[in-house]
Design goal:
Length: 410
Amino acid sequence: MNPPLSSATPATDLELRMRQVGQDLSASLGALLEVLPGAPHRPNPLAKLLGVNRAVSSRLLTATAKADPLEVLHLIPGPEPLRKVVAGADLAQHADLKAAAATAIDAFASLIEEEAGTRPALDALICPHLPGAAAKLELASRYSIYKGVSQLKGVQGELWVGAAVVTPSSESPDRLDLTWLNGAHAMQRLRPGVDVRFSYRFERDGAQDTSPTEEPQPAMGVLPLEQFCIHPMARLETHRAGEAIHYTLPDDLLGPKAKTDLFVVDHHPASMRRYADPAALAEGRARTGLFVEPAIPVARLVFDVILHEDAFPGAEPELFFYDTGYDGIANVNDPTRDLDRVRMVAHPELLGHGLGRFGSGELSTYGPMLEHLAERFGWETARLRGYRLNLQYPVYGWQVSMAFQQPPAP
């Protein structure tokens, strides 16, 4: 039965057409399955009966069992496999059922051709109307990008960790300290002769740091963090270009079968504004944005923002994804960059209070690494709260930002 449409969001002509096609496919193919011998059917026997592969029979049974026509349309095999299903149904006495199914399949093919062009494009049209479908489509698409870019770049990693820790500054009551832990776990060069590097670009109060420092600050913790590496610690070469610090792997390191870990810590005392500038607050531009960009294609991103309870008290994170290919790093307070935002089905998770909650099943040494940094920088671990984005196959070249509203000055 077709579920009622929300009166607040009237169905478009396209949605109505998709629902009708899904309903006709479900009704006609469901009726055909009912009269085939062996009902209720299972994928393997049905595949043998119809002369199709098991994937087709399994998807057909799954789709026709759904009540929502859009879910039917999303799950059902394509027109050509369905035509083979109808052709394989030896039901001379039910020619009317086969004809009805053939008509519904032709309407399905016309829908794809006229409204989408391809079946994946039709799935993208269905997703906004079908809870859960968007997340599956995004995951499959991100996986395809990960595999393709890994081959093109010649490097990949199992995990990228980006952790920003924000604590009150001992230098000024109006400032906050920022400590970044960034790095890759189980990184490997897929073919020789390719450059492997990542860049660190620091933004001060939402704008790129323009300090006149000529030399990059040392990557604190690179050598001490070796004890937390599961694979050998990557040997790094450090370069500065403008406001970016580039960490590169020497050409003689890594081969197709070798894996390495790479972690870098950058500590910036009194680098962030604790309270909102009144003018920025009045204009709605008083967010602090913390962002990561995995420097290599990775299978998973763990992005943590860990805040002292006096840093942005009561603020909940806003999540932003930006395609930075045209204009570069985006400031979350800049409305002109809204055109570069990409809507994703992803939400940060509240980890709770206390540094002991911030371990990760993806990297067993991550929790101990944070404890090590807490001792090094004197964090009050019981007063820390954390938010995590755990994302499979983050898109290489996209900026992921977690933003918090700055409070007014007391």
